Amino acid sequence: MKERDIKCDICGEEGARGRQVSRSYGKGKDLLVIENVQVIACPHCGETYLTAETLHEIERIKRLRKNFAQIRPVAVAYLSTAKP
Q1: Class of domain 6-68
Q2: Rg (CA), the chain
Q3: How far is residue 55's CA from residue 63's CA, in Å, rounded to a whole number?
Q4: For the chain, which end, N or C, has fewer CB atoms within 10 Å of the first or last residue's CB respectively?
Q5: pTM for this structure?
């Protein structure tokens, strides 16, 4: 998508913008991180969503992950919210 105002699919207002994010799916040895995922964010209603085209591509990558994924080490931290 081009850097231009987009009409929000949720509220219908002009001014939503596309941006790139990373999304993770699964956990442990089945964890898959997909980078450069296009999300649409609307400043009017506050919603962030994926287009149908993006969702289809994510499902294709998940289904064919062995053809797309590169194995990379990743640091993992655990946040403990337990109070003493």
Answers
A1: alpha beta
A2: 16
A3: 12
A4: C
A5: 0.76
Structure tokens at 56: 């289809």
Taking alpha carbons only, the member of 50, 45, 49 closest to residue 11 is 45
Q: What pLDDT, in 10s, does the model give residues 11-35? A: 999 999 999 999 999 988 889 999 9
Tokens of 50: 């994926």
Residue 78's pLDDT band, with cuts at 50, 70 and 90, is confident
- Return the HEC string of 12-46: CCEEEEEEEEEEEECCHHHCEEEEEEEEEECCCCC
* Average pLDDT of the chain to the nearest whole number: 89
Q: What tokens appear for 82 in the block?
A: 């337990």
